[in-house]
Structure to design on (176 residues):
């Protein structure tokens, strides 16, 4: 399984691509889509086109993206949400299933601590993927998101497909 991880941002959107195979995660690529400082519509177009290009280049099976967190600056939260939506629409339009993870879930899966700082995430991404150097912070966050999904998917598969689907909307186990 190839996963593209996205760390959305209105100026820089990090991306990381990993392959998960036989319980091992390996590095395929990472970087940032630089959207600049222009009008937001133009930046969203750059993000959309960048994600589209990456999907064409790496042919991922799915996308993992960080959920929006609320900041004190409402305007920043709105722009972050717009960047996130642009990336999600690009992936969905190209047929990818999109999985969302909170920053705490991502950090917990990679570092073992949901409140880890960026340097801890960079360090663990470097160690997990056996990289010679630390990726740029946005790319490391995107790689962490991709790793989080790869780990989550492999655990879900090991537990047996459909375990979560057996629960109804009311939280009761359904008979099959």
């Amino acid at each position: 399984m190839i996963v593209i991880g996205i760390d959305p941002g209105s100026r820089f959107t990090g991306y990381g691509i990993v392959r998960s195979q036989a319980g091992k995660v390996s590095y395929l690529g990472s970087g940032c889509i630089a959207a600049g400082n222009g009008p937001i519509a133009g930046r969203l177009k750059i993000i959309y086109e960048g994600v589209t290009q990456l999907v064409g280049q790496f042919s991922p099976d799915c996308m993992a993206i960080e959920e929006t967190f609320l900041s004190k600056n409402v305007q920043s939260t709105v722009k972050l949400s717009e960047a996130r939506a642009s990336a999600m629409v690009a992936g969905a339009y190209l047929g990818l299933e999109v999985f969302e993870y909170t920053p705490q879930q991502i950090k917990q899966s990679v570092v073992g601590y949901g409140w880890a700082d960026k340097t801890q995430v960079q360090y663990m991404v470097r160690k997990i993927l056996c990289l010679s150097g630390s990726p740029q912070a946005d790319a490391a966050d995107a790689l962490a998101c991709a790793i989080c999904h790869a780990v989550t998917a492999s655990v879900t598969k090991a537990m047996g497909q459909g375990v979560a689907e057996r629960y109804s909307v009311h939280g009761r186990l359904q008979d099959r």
Notes: The chain has five helices and five strands. The two ends are 28 Å apart (CA to CA). Residues 163-176 have pLDDT under 50 and may be disordered. The longest helix spans residues 137-159.
